Every structure is written in structure tokens, then in C-alpha cells.
Amino acid sequence: xxxxxxxxxxxxxxxxxxxxxxxxxxxxxxxxxxxxxxxxxxxxxxxxxxxxxxxxxxxxxxxxxxxxxxxxxxxxxxxxxxxxxxxxxxxxxxxxxxxxxxxxxxxxxxxxxxxxxxxxxxxxxxxxxxxxxxxxxxxxxxxxxxxxxxxxxxxxxxxxxxxxxxxxxxxxxxxxxxxxxxxxxxxxxxxxxxxxxxxxxxxxxxxxxxxxxxxxxxxxxxxxxxxxxxxxxxxxxxxxxxxxxxxxxxxxxxxxxxxxxxxxxxxxxxxxxxxxxxxxxxxxxxxxxxxxxxxxxxxxxxxxxxxxxxxxxxxxxxxxxxxxxxxxxxxxxxxxxxxxxxxxxxxxxxxxxxxxxxxxxxxxxxxxxxxxxxxxxxxxxxxxxxxxxxxxxxxxxxxxxxxxxxxxxxxxxxxxxxxxxxxxxxxxxxxxxxxxxxx
Amino acid sequence: xxxxxxxxxxxxxxxxxxxxxxxxxxxxxxxxxxxxxxxxxxxxxxxxxxxxxxxxxxxxxxxxxxxxxxxxxxxxxxxxxxxxxxxxxxxxxxxxxxxxxxxxxxxxxxxxxxxxxxxxxxxxxxxxxxxxxxxxxxxxxxxxxxxxxxxxxxxxxxxxxxxxxxxxxxxxxxxxxxxxxxxxxxxxxxxxxxxxxxxxxxxxxxxxxxxxxxxxxxxxxxxxxxxxxxxxxxxxxxxxxxxxxxxxxxxxxxxxxxxxxxxxxxxxxxxxxxxxxxxxxxxxxxxxxxxxxxxxxxxxxxxxxxxxxxxxxxx
Lengths: 439, 315
Known about the structure:
- The complex is a heterodimer of chains A (439) and B (315).
- Chain A is of the alpha/beta class.
- Chain A folds into two domains: 2-143 and 320-388, Periplasmic binding protein-like II (D-Maltodextrin-Binding Protein, domain 2, 3-Layer(aba) Sandwich), CATH 3.40.190.10; 145-318, D-Maltodextrin-Binding Protein, domain 2 (3-Layer(aba) Sandwich).
- Chain A has helices at residues 2-19, 36-52, 63-75, 91-96, 104-110, 119-126, 151-154, 157-167, 177-187, 210-222, 242-258, 268-276, 290-294, 333-343, 346-355, 362-365, 377-384, 396-411, 418-435, and strands at 27-33, 55-61, 83-87, 138-141, 145-150, 190-192, 195-201, 280-286, 304-308, 317-318, 322-326, 387-388.
- Chain A has a five-stranded mixed beta sheet with strand order 2-1-3-11-4, with helices on both faces. A five-stranded mixed beta sheet of chain A has the order 6-7-8-5-9. Chain A has a two-stranded parallel sheet with strand order 10-12.
- The longest helix of chain A is centred in the first third of the chain and has 18 residues, at 2-19.
- Chain B has 315 residues and is mostly helical.
- Chain B folds into two domains: 17-55, no CATH class; 80-314, Orthogonal Bundle (MetI-like fold), CATH 1.10.3720.
- Chain B has helices at residues 5-12, 15-22, 26-55, 75-81, 84-116, 122-130, 137-147, 154-163, 179-204, 208-216, 221-249, 253-258, 270-279, 284-314.
- In chain B, helix 3 (26-55) crosses helix 14 and helix 11 packs antiparallel against helix 14 (284-314).
- The longest helix of chain B has 33 residues, at 84-116.
- Chain B is flat, with a radius of gyration of 27 Å.
- The two termini of chain B are 49 Å apart.
- The A-B interface holds A 68, 71-72, 75, 93, 97-98, 205-207, 260-265, 279, 394, 397-398, 401, 405, 408-410, 412-415, 435 and B 59, 62-66, 85, 149-151, 153, 168, 171, 173-174, 176, 256, 259-266, 276, 279-283.
């Protein structure tokens, strides 16, 4: 990564020269979620301030309130944010409701090519309608749902022997979803150093998006599809397919047999807490948290390792991450576009990765040293090769809330069957698309 | 002319203003004073209500300003009233309302009755008992969440101490059977002091001579309780029930902090569901119809109740 670092210094100098012509110094506000990468972005943006003369302010909202707060801001035409790193699912609404500035002309004028960014991230974070060359964001932060585990426990001879005896195979990173459950069940209720520990912490949160993000991490490896034919909104037989039913039953079994008691409404924070407090052997969470976990003095370093969401019928990871957009209601769009231009610079992207942000730029991801630059870098690359995202429709919030309800009712509240939950979900989604005039 | 504040004010009034006011009738002057208040009431209360009624017949979405608004007639009302999930929310709300009011009245009245007896430390105990209602619902929700935590929560350990069960063998917030009771317990803990204070006011308003007369007539303590105490405290008690009923019908913050409406939708009260429809799904037309239905329900029930309360007072 040293080569990347050296290159970044020289390129930042060049970027400084190009930005030096900024006509008027502005106070820009960038809005994002409050989490580890946001701190890295503050650090990174100091370079932009020094070079452009603009000053950067930041509005970071805690994740549980991020969507509510930011979507209200956009819907009311608020001028709080000049730049917004919005969730991938907002791109449809951002584009159709005129919240985001279309960036095609700007990209063409500044020579910014979307071919320079990982294809999956451009598709997910930038385009609307999906897959068309209409860009409303620059990929800012690649992310996916992955796993981390207590490597020190996995390497202990007594635990290895107990696992071998119980399961007839060696204890190692799981290669399938079913192996993942088997390992979690093995650790559930086990005594380690005098403490009772549990299998894994998974997402079960009801209020925002938690349980949907967790369950889709099982659905996608089973081959879940939102529609029989992409763009047709034909969901019957896809959303409630036998594979989807099996995956949902799997997640419920995981929740019931391999998670700590009381984790009925847990998402990112609770997952991190469970792991850092030594309660669980494994945990799911977004790659964005992995640099912080690796640096953790208690459970990081030699005690932790990471793995990509295991496949079952196929590879599949739930997409996280965001693109950076210019807010259409901002009075400082020129300065905001300057920031985008600066951020798209390959060397700024290299520094972004060094500081703990997940660059989606090909020059960073394809660098020969990338895989070895962090213990989770290779897993990140692998995950980004098979990511799937939730609906990105303008009505995504209605679609998401319906799924949250159906999943929580079935998994946590133990109501009905997996098939009934998915059938009800198809009905809910059909109603939403009928209201939208798409069915 | 006597030197009073009114005459001094009249003398201080500029002649031009005085001339203008002189020409106005008492009724007109009254309107000048009342007018701004009526205007504010119309602007803040009546206009939004009429606007909400209008929106309830449309498919308007507040987050899609450019979208064509269609008139859908009674479709929103029909959808709401035939939606089994909404009836489950109504049931959850009714369960919460009934049991919180039941326990708060029972415990609140008992505490008031005990506190009303003269004993040493009476004032100190009153202060201690009313402490919970001075806290913010968000704070209460958060710390009860910890108390209910199966692994470290004090509540589970107390129950385990008395029942011999393993503390982590039951989840107050995660169990479909226990979660509705967990929110009832917290609301009762927080708001029983309010009912107690109202009952205490009622008890202290009963003149001693009535009890003295009953003593002379050799009425037993039990007879005194049922023929003097209860009837005279009843209007106060009914007022407390009205306040708590209205408050709990719109309960939101405490339950959101505790369960977020879960597990599943077990504790999703109508106010939580309405907020999801209006400000998360942005189905403004649908949510307006929902709000109107709830408004009519509360208004209707409250009107009947207030009539009953007035009858009790008149007795």
C-alpha cells in the first residue's frame, strides 16, 4: 500500500492545483450516518479544505434515525446538506423526486468515468433507472454484510477437539450457511474461561432495516429473487419460492438456537456490543466496522478474523454502502461538485481506503497489494463480487417496512409459517406497486 | 373621578385611539380581544383538521410533491377498517389502555388512602412515590430496557429470586406473551403517582365532620369507606381515568423505547402504527383517514365519559 500512499501525495498536489481556481470559498455541509467511516471522511476532507479553500461541515446522524432524518430533509426541500452520502435504496426516490442532481454532464465535462469504479457499486449506488447510464451519485463507500469471529477461540485445542468430537470435522471458517449454523450451535451456551458464551449475534431489529438486512444475508445465498423477470414486478413464485421459504426457516432456526438471549431487536450496535463483550463466538455486521474491530484492544488483532457471508446454493451477500450525491436544493452546488471531483481522484480514493473508508475505485481494488492490505480486504473483494440489494424503488420505504413486519412477526414473534410470511409479503408488495401504478 | 388604575389607563390612552374605541360597541371590543385567539385556533386546530379530512379521501403522499393526487373516495377508510393487522393494533392498544388504567387506579387509590393517614415521614414518602412521573418517558423506557435484559437485568433476577427460575430463561421484551405486560408494568410504575395525587386531592377534600357524624351514627369503618369515601372521591377518580385514558391512547415514546412495537407487532399501538404510515411509508392520504378514525373514536368515547362524569358530579 506504500505505492498507493506515495501516489496519493502527488495526486493530491495535482488536485490542489486544479481546485485552486475555485471562485468563492463556501461552507459546505456533508450529511451521512454517524459511524466509523464518517470519522475517516472528516480526516480525509481536511485535504480538500486545504486545497480548495472551502470549509467542510458535517452532519452525522445515528443509523437508527438516519433514514427518517435525511428523507424528511429531502422531502421538505431542506438546505441542510449540500452533499449527501445516502443509502443505496434511496437512489430511486432521490432521482424521481428531484432530490439529487443528475451528474452525467458533470462527469462528462470533468472526465470522470464510471468505468473506473467497481461495476456492482456503480449499478447499486449511482444509477436510476437501474442499470441505465443515468448517474445520480458517485460510489463513495463500498460495503456488504460479512462475518467476524473469535479466532483465539477457534484455535484453542480443547475447543477444536470438542468440535471435532461433536461434529466429526475440523473447526474452521464455515464454507456454507449450514456450516455457519452448526458452528454457532456448537458455541451456544458453552463455558469458555468461566463465562457462558453464545453462538452468534445476528440482525433482528424491527424499527428500521435490521432484520431485513440480516434475513437477506440468508435469502441471497439460497438464490432469492425479487421478481421472476427483472423489471416486471412479477413476484409470485420468486419472493415466496421454496428456496426462499427454506432460507427463512433457516434464519429462524439460527435466531432460536444460536443467538444470545434478549437479542430480539438487535442491529449493528448490539452486534458489536455482543462481540466486544465476549458473549458470542461470531457476529454478522457490515464491513465498514471491520477496521475498527481489528484495531480493538480487547477482541481485535490476533483474536479476530473475518469471513465473507457463506454461500449455500450460490454466493450472495447483502449490499450495504452508499454513493455521494449533490443535493438539488443546495445553493452551493458548484462547490459540492468540486468536492465530488476531488473525491473521484484515484489517489484520494487510495487515501480513503488507508484511512478506513471502503473505496469502490478500481485503481484501489485492483492494486496488487490490496488483498494483503488488511485481513478483511480479500473478503471484501469477494463479497462485492456477489452482492444483491433491496428494492431501490421510490417507494422503497413502504416495501422495507412491510418486509420488516412480516419477518419480525415470523422470526421473533413466532407467528405463522415461513411460507405464510412470504405470501403475505408478496401481497403487501403487490399493493404498494399497484398504488404506484406499476402493476 | 376616583384615582384608580382604570381611570389612569383611560387618561393615558391617546385621544385618537380613545375616539376610535368610543365609536365601537361592547360586542365589537369583545371581538377585538377574542379575535386573535379565535384566528389562532382556526389556523392551528380547525384548518388542519379540515385539511386532514380532505386528504383522507385522496392518495396523496407528502414525499412525492410532483405526483398527481387522485381522489379515492372512501377507499382509505375501507382499507383501514378491513385490515386485520390494524385491528390487531387496536386490540394491543385496548389491552394496554385497560390494564394500565386498572392497575393505576387500584394502586394509585390504595397509595393515596395510605398516604392520607397521618404518620411520620408522610411528606417524604409522597415525594418518593411521585418521583417516577417526573422522569422523561424516553429515559424511563431506556432504563427499563436494561432492567428487563435477560442476562443482566435486575427485573429478571428479582423474578428469579422469588420463583427459582433461571433469570435468562424468559424475555420480558422479546416474548409475545410477556411483552404486552412489560409495557403495562412500566407505564403503571411511571404514572400511578399521578392517579395517587388526584385521589389524594379527593380524599383531602372530604370534610372531617362527615366522618364524625358517621361515627356518631355508629357506622362501621367499612360502611364509611363505601358510603362516604368512595362516592366523594369518585369524580376525582373518574377525572384521573379520563386523563390517563387520553394519554395512553396516544402513547408512543415509552413503548417505542421499550419494544419498538415488537416482538413482531405485538406491542405496536395505533399511535406507533399511524406514525409508520404517515412518516415512514409517507402514505399521507391513508394516514389521514387513519387519524380521523382514531380522532372520532377518542372524541366519541371521551364525550360519553365526560357526560357520565358530569352526572356523577351532580349527585
